[in-house]
Amino acid sequence: MAYWDSVGKSDEWYTPAYIFEALGCRFDLDVASPQDYRTAVPADQFISYDSLQTEWNGFVWMNPPFGGRNGLTPWLDKFFAHGNGIALTPDRTSAPWFRAAWSSADVVLFTPKIKFMRPDGTSGGSPSNGTALMAAGEKGRSALHRAARTGLGILAVPLEEQEAV
Q1: Contact predicate 152/109, CB 8 Å
Q2: DSSP state, 80?
Q3: Closest Cα to residue 30, out of 21, 42, 22, 20?
Q4: Of 52 and 160, which is predicted with more confidence?
Q5: Integer angstrom CA distances of residue 54 from 40, 48, 73, 164
Q6: What is the pLDDT of residue 123?
Q7: What is the pTM of this model?
Q8: Are 66 and 124 spatial neighbours (Cβ–Cβ below 8 Å)?
């Protein structure tokens, strides 16, 4: 979830379980897990602080703090450098950070608006925009294809620049 849903209140918004059910996979590591709360993320390990300074291993799930204008950039840079996982972002297709991430993604699944969960377990309001799940690596690609087949969203594959001409 993002700051525009509750300006200044919290970056703590959790992905609902139905997203993981549609993906049909298990993660080795949740790289942006809240410190005192275990979400529905099916992961074996969790990093709750200093994730950008910590080494990541295996197949990762990343729902980072959406933060301000370019708050996602360091998270996405590290995610694509790692090259193995699924990242959840707002679908801000006109934003420079989104365009850079798009060009690094193997496949992207655009979802309808997701009502994220608050720390108290209640559902948040309807966000202002949809969400994009970005895959890096074969396991992530497979999970997004599986989720698209269940109707979770619209699958898009970034074209190589030479293919687009």
Answers
A1: yes
A2: H
A3: 42
A4: 52
A5: 22, 10, 16, 37
A6: 73
A7: 0.86
A8: no
